[in-house]
Amino acid sequence: xxxxxxxxxxxxxxxxxxxxxxxxxxxxxxxxxxxxxxxxxxxxxxxxxxxxxxxxxxxxxxxxxxxxxxxxxxxxxxxxxxxxxxxxxxxxxxxxxxxxxxxxxxxxxxxxxxxxxxxxxxxxxxxxxxxxxxxxxxxxxxxxxxxxxxxxxxxxxxxxxxxxxxxxxxxxxxxxxxxxxxxxxxxxxxxxxxxxxxxxxxxxxxxxxxxxxxxxxxxxxxxxxxxxxxxxxxxxxxxxxxxxxxxxxxxxxxxxxxxxxxxxxxxxxxxxxxxxxxxxxxxxxxxxxxxxxxxxxxxxxxxxxxxxxxxxxxxxxxxxxxxxxxxxxxxxxxxxxxxxxxxxxxxxxxxxxxxxxxxxxxxxxxx
Length: 367
Ligand SMILES: Nc1ncnc2c1ncn2[C@@H]1O[C@H](COP(=O)(O)OP(=O)(O)OP(=O)(O)O)[C@@H](O)[C@H]1O
Ligand SMILES: [Mg+2]
Known about the structure:
By secondary structure, the protein is an alpha/beta fold. The chain folds into 2 domains: 4-143 and 327-365, Nucleotidyltransferase, domain 5 (2-Layer Sandwich); 148-322, Nucleotidyltransferase, domain 5 (2-Layer Sandwich). The chain contains 13 helices and 13 strands. A 6-stranded mixed β-sheet has the order 3-2-1-4-7-13. The longest helix is centred in the first third of the chain and has 26 residues, at 58-83. The chain starts with a strand and ends with a strand. It binds adenosine-5'-triphosphate (ATP) and magnesium ion. Residues 9, 11-13, 15, 166, 168-169, 193, 197, 208-211, 295-297, 299-300, 330 line the site of adenosine-5'-triphosphate (ATP).
């Protein structure tokens, strides 16, 4: 009997929505089908404003929550039609939602995602699990990253230490020791695609730097690199998580003198991104031998080349090598987390998020 779930993810890069239909009945989950829907430019800009400056009135916020909920439901219905699968055959949807504010520290930490799951459940007739982060926060955790548990389920190998790197808007690591009595660890290393996308958008109007070609033409600016690397986040101990609230174009621009060539700034951002990732890997697993990369950043050849330069002893491969589409892993993780929730199993790893105990994550919206 298949055990079908759908995962929906739209991440900090704001590139669009990924949805995946997964069968969890085999010992290794199988992807049945997938869909991607890019955000329309207007929606993207509204979300960018919302997530970066947080200056949107409540009416707009409510409407965006509704609009995203409808978009999530639409992509699920498209996926079902394309796969010739009925809603009744799907156990549940796991929807991450769109993060609009993630602030894991201070007196009142919070993480806010939108994309109304009432609408998803209503329009698809499928039970929907969402709001995964806040229960972990209620238990004293950062609410992030949540994917290491899924990375461990998919990639942990009892013969080899390995690290999984997801390069989304933010980059996050999962450290999977071969010794199963050593806990899994993981955290956000800092920027993934977020600054690279932001700078090319500002200077050239492209959504991203295809294969890293533009950045590869620039020269690293040592003073700027040093200044960017001085950001205290990079030195802070885990558990830690971050977002667009910290790493954004204003953060970069306040550190520019003004005379830099655009492509040199881009080259410097590549170096910052690669060094912060490589340092985080080395700090956790000094002798890391294998790095499995997923997320859209895997297609940025220049970024992968720079990471590889800073991790010369590490074999770097795309998750594709393990027969898993790198762009679907995050969405799969939320399908898997929904299954953990419905099975009354905890979804967080306290060593990763800093929570004081394992907790069952998410809110359930019945079909
Ligand atoms: N061919 C490519 N060349 C360079 N960069 C690419 C390419 N394809 C995708 N990308 C990068 O991948 C990004 C999308 O990645 P992804 O969907 O994993 O990020 P995300 O939505 O932020 O996810 P999450 O936050 O869940 O990790 C794009 O914004 C772009 O920066
Ligand atoms: Mg994405």
